[in-house]
Design goal:
Ribosomal Protein S5, domain 2; four-stranded mixed sheet
């Protein structure tokens, strides 16, 4: 699970992020990000709306799966960013862990948040 110090607190920070952030998209999720020079630690939020999954249990399970992947990626961030992962498909709930790691990692690399190369086959090369 992602530590509390890496999470957003309150709604004001997310509001700024939604207005000023750049975005990278895949078929499963969208990453919105903006550099934040005022902080020493990155802030991360995972947004899962009721349109994605009606059940709160399902939404929380999706959120926990993404937070666990991000927990492993945060030490590799190249700077201090405010990041929101917006889940756009309920397929995240049934997608294998390895495929989900691949999709999230490739989006973070495309955004310039994590170093590395984009691995083919995750559907991220298809621009929407």
């Amino acid at each position: 699970m992602l530590q509390q110090r890496y999470r957003f607190h309150g709604y004001g920070g997310l509001r700024y992020l939604y207005r000023h952030a750049s975005a990278e998209r895949s078929r499963l999720l969208t990453v919105k990000y903006v550099a934040n020079r005022r902080r020493r630690m990155p802030r991360i939020a995972v947004v899962v709306s009721k349109k994605v999954h009606k059940s709160a249990v399902g939404r929380n399970r999706i959120r926990r799966r993404i937070y666990e992947i991000l927990h492993q990626q945060v030490p590799h961030f190249t700077g201090v960013y405010d990041v929101a992962l917006i889940i756009t498909s309920s397929e995240v709930l049934t997608t294998s862990h390895d495929e989900l790691v691949l999709v999230v990692t490739n989006l973070l690399v495309r955004a310039g948040i994590c170093p590395g190369r984009i691995t083919p086959g995750d559907g991220a090369d298809k621009r929407e």
